[in-house]
Design goal:
The protein is α/β, with parallel strands linked by helices and 386 residues long. It is 39% helix and 14% strand. It has 16 helices and eleven strands.
């Protein structure tokens, strides 16, 4: 069994929805102890759907390995409980409305004065120094506002949502990385850090290629469906018995594709297609020329040639196809509704996948946590604070 990298680290999470729960799920998978603070009715993502054997698919996916504790922070006893947890914590992460934790006396600035080794992480819709800081923000709203929706879809679809909660997911991953950096920094300096992350900034950073294309190239990036705005050929082509998604990444690969896979030395030497910049510029003519050479070929024939020559390709799968995909790895996680299979986290360490710990029922750990943190002679929680 791979040693848990974050064993001994205590994380207190005042979290809801997707972005922060995803970050703390990654921390829990790495061995941290994560206490999830929930309202009496629970994290509202518990009610997003009931697809996972009566449980929310979102909640099952990103809340494994945590301890659930219900708190009402307007009640002095519950606030005192959270304060006791934070006194022993290594990390405090939250995504309440801007200013909410400050009004409760557990804002990052106040906490770090009391606990200099504590790492605090605040996730908001917009950055604290922006005029929109106090606005509510959700995944789809930010996809639209950052221009991501404007470059997603095809020419006829209009601006389109990416089919997963990419804003929340990306922000959660960014928070996870920033917290790991802060833990490494604290190991050297002995001091905690305050991390501020926003949904908008996270996706704006990912939008740098279209941003630079528009700002300095003067080109508004088009919606291209399954084509690539900067690489050609890259797209779906029809075959005699199906279709495949083809990707060429270099001039060498282009020559091999044209000459050795498609059997057309003339296409390989066509001056209009002599560089990637020219091929992108002449994408319509390029795609038509490739399509004419592929339409009579079978999937087995063309993929055998692509495999032989080392040219990348893929199929356009449905989610049903993903379930049976030979390269997909599913792992079982225990839940209040019994074992549920989820797709595995991607990292394989020393040949082993991560061990998935159970998904908690709402308030599963109320009594144990209150006893632990309110007991006068309680054994200190495992923590790297010392």
């Amino acid at each position: 069994m791979v040693a848990d990298a974050l064993e001994g680290i205590l994380v207190v999470a005042l979290e809801q929805a997707v972005a922060v729960p995803l970050a703390t799920c990654r921390l829990a998978d790495a061995g941290a102890r994560v206490i999830k603070l929930e309202r009496a009715e629970g994290d509202f993502s518990r009610g997003y759907d009931d697809y996972a054997q009566g449980l929310s698919s979102y909640f099952v996916w990103i809340n494994r390995g945590k301890e659930s504790c219900r708190v009402d922070l307007k009640q002095p006893d519950d606030l005192a409980l959270v304060e006791a947890m934070l006194a022993k914590a290594d990390v405090f992460i939250q995504n309440l409305a801007p200013g909410a934790t400050e009004r409760l006396g557990i804002g990052s600035e106040a906490l770090r004065r009391r606990h200099p080794r504590l790492i605090t992480c605040d996730v908001s819709g917009y950055a604290p120094d922006s005029p929109d800081y106090r606005r509510k923000a959700y995944d789809l709203l930010v996809q639209a506002e950052t221009g991501l929706s404007a470059i997603t879809g095809n020419e006829s679809s209009g601006p389109t949502r990416i089919g997963i909660s990419i804003v929340d997911i990306s922000t959660g991953q960014a928070a996870y990385a920033a917290i790991l950096e802060a833990l490494l920094r604290r190991a050297r300096t002995g001091k905690g850090s305050h991390i501020a992350l926003s949904l908008f900034d996270t996706i704006a950073d990912l939008m740098n290629v279209p941003y630079l294309t528009r700002r300095y190239g003067g080109i508004e990036p088009p919606r291209l469906g399954l084509a690539h705005p900067s690489i050609a050929p890259y797209g779906v082509f029809s075959l005699a018995d199906g279709a495949l998604l083809l990707s060429v990444q270099s001039e060498r690969e282009w020559l091999i594709l044209a000459r050795d896979v498609l059997g057309s030395p003339a296409l390989a030497q066509e001056p209009r297609f002599a560089s990637n910049v020219l091929r992108v510029r002449e994408r319509k003519a390029l795609d038509e020329a490739i399509q004419a050479l592929m339409i009579g070929r079978s999937y087995a024939e063309i993929t055998a040639a692509l495999n032989r020559e080392g040219i990348a390709y893929g199929t356009v799968s449905s989610v049903g196809d993903l379930i049976s995909h030979p390269s997909a790895t599913a792992l079982a996680v225990e839940t209040p509704a019994g074992p549920i299979e989820v797709l595995a986290p991607p990292a394989i360490v020393d040949g082993q996948r991560v061990r998935l710990r159970p998904v908690p029922a709402l308030g599963d750990h109320d009594a144990a946590l209150r006893a632990e943190f309110f007991a006068e002679d309680a054994t200190p929680a495992r923590s790297g604070q010392g």
